[in-house]
Input
Amino acid sequence: MTERQPKPIQRPDLGGPFPEHVAIIMDGNGRWAQRRALRRVLGHKEGIASVREITTSCAEMGVKSLTLYAFSVENWKRPRAEIRFLMGLLEEFMVAERPTLMDNDVRLACIGRLDDLPEASLRALRETEELTASNRGMTLRLALSYGSRSEIADGVRRIAEDARAGRLDPADVDEETLRGYLYDPDTPDPDLLIRTAGEMRISNFLLWQISYAEFYVADVCWPEFRRPQLMEALRAYASRQRKFGGLIQDAPDEAPASKKAERTA
Ligand code: FPP
Output
């Protein structure tokens, strides 16, 4: 069998840094539909087209990880019919998008309390994860039945279990230890967090991981968030200066305090 050649990456020059990891809170599907006098669930259906376009665009441009907030732990409180529709859509997506994921060298991974998902959706998801496991271009991470507080609580519970069993010394627990107990410790933190539909909320999404992410809010609803809107977000990111609590790198005569002390010592 001949090996598939990965597509060449076409990274746009936006005059500044490019994010390795983009995370998106896909909001406004219901509003998009209601404004058109359609049933809310048709907004979710249209949202799939945005998922496809944003996934392929990010993969083409060389984003390494794209994390999409597809279903939160709180979303289980929605009407049963809407949940059923969303889970059906998820299952359909898992099957229908396989060729697109393969063509674009995208690996699928999921985070969240996946055991809460209906069996058929979970099976389709596991099969797609397996099929795409050796793709290396980009990882598409879907957050499903995901909540950041439950992720942290799940991690802390496992830390406590390991400490009780003597596998972990409580004195050694630091930030990196906790990171190691989160759902996907090996993926670097998001650089850019996008939310659609104009809302200025985090909604329990990746609270630990977004500590230093740049935040971008798009006014359009998720079904209208396509490549041009993604480019706007990437342009905004390119113009930001990230300091991670320090100072801007090229500020003159501003060595870190420890170095300064050495110089004057
Ligand atoms: C928020 O819109 C969106 C969701 C709760 C679900 C997002 C799901 C999709 C985009 C489709 C399924 C995705 C995959 C990957 C299979 P909302 O309903 O809260 O909108 P509203 O705030 O306008 O009511």
Summary: The two ends are 65 Å apart (CA to CA).
